[in-house]
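Example 3.2
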Amino acid sequence: MIDREPPYPRKPPLGTSKKLVRLAGIALVVLIAAGAFAYVNGSLDPQRLTPGRVVDVFEHNNGVHPGYRRNHPKGICVAGYFESNGAAAPLSKAQVFASGRTPVVGRLALPTGNPYSPDSAAPIRSFAVQFTQANGQQWRSGMNSMPVFPVGTPQAFVDLQIATAPDPKTGKPDPARPPAFFAAHPEAQPFLAWVKTAKLSASFVTETYNSVNAFVLVDAQGKRQPVRWSLVPQVKSDAPAPQTKDYLQQDLSAKLASGPQRWDLVLTLANAADSTNDASKSWSGEHKTVSAGTLVVESDSAQLDGQCRDINYDPLVLPSGIEGSDDPLLVARSAAYASSYLRRTAEVDQLHATPAQEKQP
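Structure, written as tokens:
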């Protein structure tokens, strides 16, 4: 979920190699959140880790790819609309939930640190969406196909970053560190359970994308309801992933050529006992859900010149009627996204500058 990374280990003991490869790839999704969270929390003082320094870590580990996002750099812009059915309007005064259409600009992506990675590099897919209401207010949401984060505290995120960091001499992480880290963090069990069953999808359009973090809906009377949300595909498939490098974008374009692609926006309402400040905890048991409407993707375009290019999918850009929860990762993500966005867009300006413009001070 992030403008968001470690290489793969030496062969570990028998029976753990596939799991470690998955963990190394999936750890990239939480890496930027780790540094940004530490920055906001201040837990790394006196040598404070700022969002800029977090981005430096990504560049060190993955190289610099001018004009690309520092995390999830391989992606494609999409555009369409959200058709609200009005079912969520009693829960939130946000215009997006009133019956009718709201235009959206989104981005489907692969969570690696290299824009040239093969689509098989990690089983996670991401979907970032910007809804623009008639009153000009926006709702931006970054979602991932994983249901939870591995851990939920600043120190645990920092420790995870250390456990998956590459050795400068080998370019690979110590194969013993990830298993040792997860053994010391039993709260990661929901995440590890998902890792065991995660499969490479053959298509962006058959994935479910989850907010992972909790948010709060506020109605016209000020009543507050914590929620998590998911985009659930209307078409599902268990087809195996192709072996080609860029099959996700090719598949998306082919499917859109035959018609719009659709996801249902499903809100899961928190129960009183559910944690809203820990993204590593799943909400188990019976929960009320509300299908708020359908997100429809009608077209795609290359990310370097498409509508999504200059959008910072900051999860705290929210309209009246939707608020961030007490989950500290939200503030952390917002800070890191901003740093990455400024660096990336400056590079885009340089790439598109004319020779005369480049000479100007």
